[in-house]
Recover the amino acids of this structure.
């Protein structure tokens, strides 16, 4: 079966990438938002249900609740324990998955569309969404596993730096809350049940469907999934993150390599400056070996094997981040070069040649983001969850091509202020 599905995906990839993507949108009877793309080439259905139930909704003092709730969600539901769920899905050739990040918690299902496969797989998904067990033994096991993972992570300089960076970037905001062994160990089954009841609701859900379905079939499936959930409403968002204030934090560690993060809160999903920031960042640090940071930090000075920059738009202002590793004794000089490169780029922007190269790469590689149902689903899910327009993918290339040097300079000057950078180093001399 796996070989057959792989062959089907490879054969269908090229036409899918080149064809236009039509996203149909509607709302179910009890308030779930639906985004559907008919993909008739494969006898498969990919489903993703996103809830505004990420770590930003962890209550004060309960950091890690969103991730643990999602992690235990599909380990027993309805009339099936976790073993029964795994065995039935294996028999059906279906796969259940998902994750939790800062903004959202996701549940995914991939199944064949033959009726004897599709209906049982959807029944499992409905139970997972609506009737999770949160069994005490399973919760205790996963809680212990999470605590062990957190303790191990805090011995690694990259994890230490990442945790400190987010805390420094978002002081007093839920984005800055980081799970600890202590916060996770203190969670109870009642905490998980309450979190699930409050946030895993139809009014707080976005359902994405990509597969060999008609609109009528898609509507029926969306109603089946959403009707298993209480109506509910989206949770209120916290106050927007405060503007960044320059800060430097140095954390001691015996590692031979210094881990360095610089950045600040930048933009939210759907911001009109996204495209000039994306295009500009390709030249700054997102374009691999052709980016300025790589050329100046790696190629000319040999300070780092890898250095990068990126924007991560989220429900609220997500970070702009620069990251690198270097020898301990070179950390200060490397940071100085990074700041010089960034300052020059913010002041001058890309050259005409750099802008053309960035556009060509971003526009030319765009079809590769849609060359399988799984990739298409990921894009559709982002559009649905963040409320982007249904024709977002249709206009992506045109929006890239419309960016000018002045657009890049203006956008960077609005969102990336070098004087306000937060800098975190671990294991630097």
């Amino acid at each position: 079966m796996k070989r057959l599905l792989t062959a089907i995906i490879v054969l269908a990839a090229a036409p899918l990438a080149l064809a236009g993507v039509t996203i149909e949108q509607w709302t179910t009877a009890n308030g779930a938002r639906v985004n559907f793309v008919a993909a008739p080439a494969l006898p498969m259905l990919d489903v993703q249900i996103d809830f505004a139930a990420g770590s930003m909704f962890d209550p004060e003092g309960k950091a890690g609740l969103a991730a643990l709730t999602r992690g235990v969600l599909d380990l027993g539901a309805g009339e099936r324990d976790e073993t029964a769920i795994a065995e039935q899905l294996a028999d059906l050739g279906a796969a259940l998955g998902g994750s939790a990040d800062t903004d959202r918690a996701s549940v995914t299902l991939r199944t064949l569309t033959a009726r004897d496969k599709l209906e049982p797989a959807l029944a499992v998904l409905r139970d997972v969404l609506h009737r999770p067990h949160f069994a005490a033994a399973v919760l205790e096991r996963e809680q212990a596993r999470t605590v062990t993972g957190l303790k191990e992570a805090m011995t690694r300089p990259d994890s230490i730096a990442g945790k400190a960076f987010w805390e420094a970037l978002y002081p007093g905001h839920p984005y800055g809350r980081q799970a600890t062994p202590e916060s996770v160990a203190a969670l109870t089954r009642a905490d998980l049940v309450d979190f699930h009841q409050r946030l895993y609701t139809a009014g707080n859900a976005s359902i994405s469907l990509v597969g060999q379905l008609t609109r009528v079939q898609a509507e029926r499936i969306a109603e089946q999934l959403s009707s298993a959930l209480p109506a509910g409403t989206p949770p209120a968002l916290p106050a927007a993150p405060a503007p960044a204030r320059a800060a430097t934090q140095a954390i001691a560690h015996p590692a031979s390599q210094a881990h360095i993060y610089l950045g600040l809160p930048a933009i939210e999903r759907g911001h009109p400056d996204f495209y000039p920031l994306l295009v500009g960042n390709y030249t700054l640090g997102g374009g691999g070996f052709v980016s300025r940071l790589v050329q100046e930090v790696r190629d000319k000075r040999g300070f780092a094997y890898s250095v990068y920059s990126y924007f991560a738009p989220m429900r609220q202002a997500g970070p702009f981040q620069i990251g690198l590793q270097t020898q301990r004794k070179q950390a200060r000089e490397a940071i100085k070069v990074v700041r010089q490169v960034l300052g020059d780029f913010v002041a001058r922007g890309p050259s005409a040649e750099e802008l053309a190269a960035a556009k060509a790469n971003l526009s030319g590689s765009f079809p590769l983001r849609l060359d399988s149902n799984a990739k298409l689903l990921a894009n559709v899910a982002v559009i649905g969850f963040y409320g982007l327009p249904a024709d977002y993918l249709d206009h992506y290339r045109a929006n890239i091509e419309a960016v000018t040097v002045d657009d890049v300079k203006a956008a960077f000057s609005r969102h990336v202020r070098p004087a306000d950078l937060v800098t975190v180093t671990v294991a630097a001399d």
Remarks:
- The longest strand covers residues 257-267.
- DSSP finds 16 helices and 13 strands in the chain.
- The longest helix spans residues 136-153.
- The radius of gyration is 23 Å.
